[in-house]
Structure formats: C-alpha cells, structure tokens
Amino acid sequence: MLDDSLPCWVYRSPRKAEMYLYLAAEDAFDKVPEALLEQFGEPVLVIELELSAQRQLAREDVKQVMANLRRQGFHLQLPPRLQPDLYRGNPV
Q1: With contact defined as beta carbons under 8 Å apart, do 22 and 77 qualify?
Q2: What is the pLDDT of residue 1?
Q3: Is pTM beyond 0.70 here?
C-alpha cells in the first residue's frame, strides 16, 4: 500500500507564465529531462507542500500529480488554455 501523503516542491517557470514544475524532492532537477529544463528556464521555488488524495489543487488532479511524482520524480503543470470572451456587439 502506498503512503497516503507525499511531500512536494513546486517551482514556477520564469519564461512561461503559469507553468509549474512539481518535484518529489527539493531541487531534484536530475529527474527532469534536460530539454524540458531548457524550455522551462531557471526554476523559482514557489511553495513546499504535503500532497494527499484528500487535498485539492487549483488546476491539477492531485492523484495524477502524486502518481507522476512517484513514477518519474516530477510533474509538469502547463498554462491553462485561454479562451477570451470576444465582444460580439450589443444584442438586438
């Protein structure tokens, strides 16, 4: 049985707005592919937190994040797809 909680360190990308990298260990960038780190830029630590199946994350499925951390040591959160509200004129 897997432990029901997992420590996590979250870093933001200075190059891509709203892109975050979750790591299973602090500064464990050796688990992240070099090409991804090049695109990501110099990671900036945002928060350290304890993940659990009961915890909700704003835009990610916590169970998927935990699975990725356990399997590969990292999880990448991509920016949301923006869908701007277009002005279509005044209704008639």
Answers
A1: yes
A2: 38
A3: yes
